[in-house]
Structures are given as structure tokens and as C-alpha cells.
Amino acid sequence: MSHCHQFEPLHIRCLVIVSLCLGLIVLSGFFHAKDKSYSISKSPEELLIPSTPCHAKTNVMFLKTHKTASSTVLNIMFRFAERYNLTVALPADQLLHLGYPRTFLAQFVEDFEAIGQNYNIMCNHMRFNPSEVQKVMAPNTFYFSILRNPIPLLESSYIYYKNNVPAFRSSRDVNEYLASPTRYYRPEDFRWNIYARNIMWFDFGYDNNAEDNTEYIQAVLKEIEQNFHLILIAEYFDESMILLKHVLCWDLDDVIYFKLNSRSQDTVQTLTPASEERVKAWCSLDWKLYLHFNQSFWRRIEETIGLEVLEKEVNQLRARQKELMEACLLEQEAVGKNHIKNKAFLPFQSGAANILGYNLRQDLDKRMLRICQRMVMPELQYTSYLHAVQHPHKRRKQLGLPLLWTSLQERMQLPPTN
Ligand SMILES: Nc1ncnc2c1ncn2[C@@H]1O[C@H](COP(=O)(O)OS(=O)(=O)O)[C@@H](OP(=O)(O)O)[C@H]1O
């Protein structure tokens, strides 16, 4: 600073620099006025360019399809709901899903009779039924969903539902099942066999055993395009999050995530090339659904943000994710079910899968603990927790997990619910 007093031009330059800095600080405060729940360093470039000049959309419906990375999206949605104090359309009473696999009805939502069409967020599993969803969600709601390549999806589904799906139970492994699916699959076993064929088609509300007919498929694709504003692709999860963030006008921080509901590598089976081809034929409705929306996903990127911005922002997302993982996690990765120390964070285990979870660092202060807990909170625990917060007078959901709610809450050190 002493240089500033020596030479007049330098003095003026210093003044200009100081006022510029002050201006920047004020501006950055203005553009980032929304409560940032954790502070991750921002580059000077980011401070100069306001990331959200538009208005964040807060009425959002996410159709949670099965085995498509949808639990990670649900966690993002729940955190967003908490940040803005939004009302979530949660499963009623002891339901953990919105009536799935029954076709959705508004009465499956907790307190629908009292709250009516005033929910902001809806994202638990359901079988889509637009007219009933519209009774719950406001007319200006944004609808989106996610699809995954049916080949890895079927393998994931096979392992996860191994013990429940008759078609899976009676085959030795996924390759054997795919070698002659009709030997194991009986459409009459409707309740469980939905996971064994065209599960995404079913989740969108259609008949997963329908004939593969071009006219019918085109009609369904058109209807989905009318009902949904955006369809994401699990294989391009980070790209999907960036597109979502732009379309919803959310902050980058809103779409930072830790991968949830993944499996240990030793519970993944390898499909033979022949099996991969068979999935395309056996699940041809899902295959066509996926091909169609994979194309429109990339078209949408080109029409909106473009590949250059996409790449830049995907890198930013990964950098922030890494920062947050270092801040929150004991190990820098997900760990097997037997290595999860705090059983309150144990994800629901199913079939032959070892579903991974996370261990938090021991030295987190209160604020970071709150943030990190939410990043790793599995679907059922988070659903149950939000249900208790939103509906304090209702009976708490019995999770069927080893812990009772009270000890779950104590161990997670979550804030009181009323
Ligand atoms: N971010 C991200 N990117 C790519 N893939 C991801 C991501 N998050 C979760 N996953 C994978 O999604 C599978 C779990 O899907 P769901 O959470 O939808 O399953 S569930 O229906 O709710 O049980 C599960 O797949 P499998 O591991 O093959 O079973 C997860 O690994």
C-alpha cells in the first residue's frame, strides 16, 4: 500500500483496483445471495460471471425409474427441497414408495387431502400416471426422468432382485436367463417379473409385455415427450446434471452428488456378447426408448449449452465433488456393506448385491456434519426423515432396517423433527 502514496498515477491505479475489488465483493455477494450450505472455493473467473441470472425452478417432478442412478438423483432433489424449505410429495403412512408397482394415485401421497395441489417436489418411485400426478403438482411443474442402457440395467436388476423375481430366482445366472428368457419368465407373475423385462417402459406407465410395434412405440415416445420436459441418461450422469442445472436454473452446488446405491464389483456379473444382443431383443421396448432419448439428450445439449460449456462445467462439477469427498469422507470412495461403521447410513440391501455406502470423517464440525450426512443418506432413511420433519404428528415410517427411528436420529445427530 505504501507505493500508492509515492506516485500520483500509481495512486489512481491503486484506487481503481481497490474499488474494483470492493465492487466485485459486493457483486459476488449479490449473485450468490442464496444460502450456500457449504463453501467451496470459487475461481476469480466464476466470481465475475454470475452463475444464476435466472430464477431457480422449485416445482419439480422426477419420475424415479429403477436401477438407473435414480437414487442419486433423489438425494439431489431432497437436498434441494431442504435448502428452499419446499414441500415434498412423500409416500403416505408406512409406504416407502408412491404405491409402486400400482399405477400412481394422488391418495398415495401423505396429506394429499389437506395439502392438495401445493407440493413442490415429487421424486419417490411410482408407476407414472399423469392425470393423478397433476392433482398433486402445480400446473407449472417441471417433469423429468432418467434412462439407462437396458443392457447394464438388466444385469443390475438381475442381481438386485435375484431373490424376488421368479424369472431370476429359477435361473442360475444372468447369461442363463438371457439364453432363453421365456423359459423362466411368465407374464402372469406380474407383481415381480416387471423387473425382468422392459422395466423402464413399465415405470413410465406402459405395458412392459406389449408387442414391439412401430406405430405403438412411436405413439408412446410422443406421449412421453409431451409429458416430460427432459429425459436424462445415466451413462452420462455428470453431463445430465449440468444440463439439468441449466434447464432448472439451479446452482452447480445443487447438483453435486456422491454416487449412491452402487454395488461392489464382486457382485457384478459379466454379460457375454451374445447376452448383450439378446437384451436388445428381449427388452426391445426399453431399447428403443433408450435409443430415442439418448439422441434427443445430445440434441438438447447442442441446442442449449453446447459441448464446450458442457465440458467446462462437467470439469467444475467433478472438481467440486472431489473437494467435498475430501471434506466429508473417511475413505475417498464407497465401501462395502460390512465396512459401513454407522449402520444408520447402511443402504437397503437386496438380492445378491452388496450395496455400497460411505463412512464420514470423525472430525467434522456441526455444519459440515449436517451437509455430509445428507450427501450419503440412503433413499429410505432420507424419505423417512423428511416424512417425520414434514408430518411430525404422523406415525413414523418403520424402515425394516436394524435401527429404530430414535436411535437412527440420535446416531445421525439429525436436527429434531419438531
Ligand atoms: N452417478 C451415477 N452414475 C452412474 N451410475 C450410477 C450413479 N449413481 C448410481 N448409479 C448406478 O445406478 C444403479 C442404482 O440405480 P437406482 O438408484 O436407480 O436403483 S433403485 O431402483 O433405486 O434401487 C447402480 O447400478 P449397479 O451398480 O450397476 O447396480 C449404481 O451403481
From TrEMBL:
The keyword Transferase applies. The keyword Transmembrane helix applies. It comes from the Eukaryota. Signal peptide: none annotated. Keywords: Glycoprotein, Golgi apparatus, Membrane, Signal-anchor, Transferase, Transmembrane, Transmembrane helix. Its main location: Golgi. It is a single-pass type II membrane protein. The chain crosses the membrane at residues 12-33. It is found in: Golgi apparatus membrane. PANTHER family: GALACTOSE-3-O-SULFOTRANSFERASE, GALACTOSE-3-O-SULFOTRANSFERASE 2. Belongs to the galactose-3-O-sulfotransferase family. This is Galactose-3-O-sulfotransferase 2. It comes from Willisornis vidua. The gene is Gal3st2.
